[in-house]
Amino acid sequence: MAACAVRGRGRGRAGARPLAGCGARRGAGARPGAPPRVLADRPEIASALTAADRVEILSEALPYLQRFHNKTIVVKYGGAAMKDDALKALVVKDIALLACVGINTVMVHGGGPEINKWLGDLGIEPNFHNGLRVTDEATMEVVEMVLTGRVNKGIVSMINFEGGSAVGLCGKDDSLFVARKTRVEELGYVGEITKVNPKIVQNVVEAGSIPVIASVATDSGDGHSLNINADIAAGELAAALGAEKLILMTDVPGVMQNRYDMSTLFKELDTSKAQALMAEGIIEGGMIPKVNCCLQTLSQGVKAAHIIDGRQPHSLLQEVLTDEGVGTMVTDEGSSCLMDS
Questions:
Q1: Taking Cα atoms as reference points, which of 149, 187, 191, 139 lies closest to residue 170?
Q2: Which of 179, 200, 263, 332 could form a disulfide bond with 217, CB atoms 3.0-4.6 angstroms apart?
Q3: Could you give the domains of the chain?
């Protein structure tokens, strides 16, 4: 019988394992082990909630907390949520909260906007081939510097400040991602993942921390650094970890019949329907590689893959911990079902 990809209320048993990734908040008045204050910066929302509202929210979330306790969720972080400081802060709070309630949360990130900024500051003109970044040697140096340094350590610092315990990594650490140059020579130092060695990520999770991984890999041929697609890196890592879910944060609400009409959002798709929508041209443009990434991940054993809008505040929590979700969940045929409460 196919595994059940849960969006409805799930059964589970919360064990006595210490909550992973939840350290002391850095700042005045912090309590060691205190959970992130997700609504602390939204007083207008917090003040509008009655006691009954708060109980209802917790009641709805509880089955998911039980279902996903000690399970692994891989989140690919990118797009507008990396450019807007307010959105960035909310994503970080969500990541810290999921870890604090016992969900093994792993983050993989890109950093396109920051890379473009630094290329401009250094006078290096970005070049593209068929919409894909051309990564020559000078560009690769900037990519690696920005992704593994400024972006990665910035995210780690923010998670730690919000009460989490994060550790920054990149695909070169312990040969986490081994790759080869893409067959499209014009792209330069752009890689295709050939092997994933997840042990270092597993060690970080087992130590109670949140791995934050920059999408840079090692070339299996000459050891050179390679720029890799963060969506694909997250999907391959999710498969290697045997993750429960892969979540891709994007700049669109999900897969829609009409991309200009939010009411046409597909809340759930199975693999056959997703492939049919691509064949019909309904899934098009930049959504095609994201859906293909989801399908590839599912074929490797991950139970569900989600495409959500990172521009929507707390979209990550809404997708994981509520009945309705906010994006599109993709599952294998016959695997999506609602579990009794």
A1: 149
A2: 179
A3: 60-333 (3.40.1160.10)
Cα angle: 183, vertex 188, 193; to 5 degrees: 55
Q: In degrees, to the nearest 5, what angle opens at C-alpha 278 toward C-alphas 272 and 283?
A: 120
- Contact by Cβ (8 Å): 255, 287: yes
Tell me 262's DSSP state: G
Instruction: For 225-280, write each residue's pLDDT tens digit.
Output: 999 999 999 999 999 999 999 999 999 999 999 988 999 999 999 999 999 999 99
Comparison of pLDDT for 55 and 224, the residue scoring more: 224
Using the 8-state DSSP alphabet, how is residue 264 labeled? G
Between CA 235 and CA 15 the distance in angstroms is 28
Per DSSP bridges, beta strands 328-331 and 304-309 are antiparallel
> Higher model confidence: residue 164 or residue 127?
164
Q: What's the predicted TM-score (pTM) here?
A: 0.83
- Binned at pLDDT 50, 70 and 90, residue 19 comes out as very low
User: Which residues lie below 8 Å from residue 289, measured CB to CB, with a gap of 6+?
Assistant: 229, 231
DSSP 8-state assignment for residue 146: I
The answer to whether residues 90 and 15 touch, using CB atoms and an 8 Å cutoff, is no
Close Cβ partners of 284 (under 8 Å, ≥ 6 residues apart): 278
Tokens of 14: 């919360």
Residue 331, phi then psi, degrees to nearest 5: -135, 165
Query: Would you call 263 helix, strand, or coil by DSSP?
Result: helix
Give the angle subtended at the CA of 196 by the CAs of 108 and 4, to the nearest 5°. 70
Element (H, E) at 66: helix 51-68
Query: Can you tell me the distance from the alpha carbon of 171 to that of 307, in angstroms, rounded to the nearest whole number?
Result: 23
- Calpha distance 199→191 (Å, rounded): 21
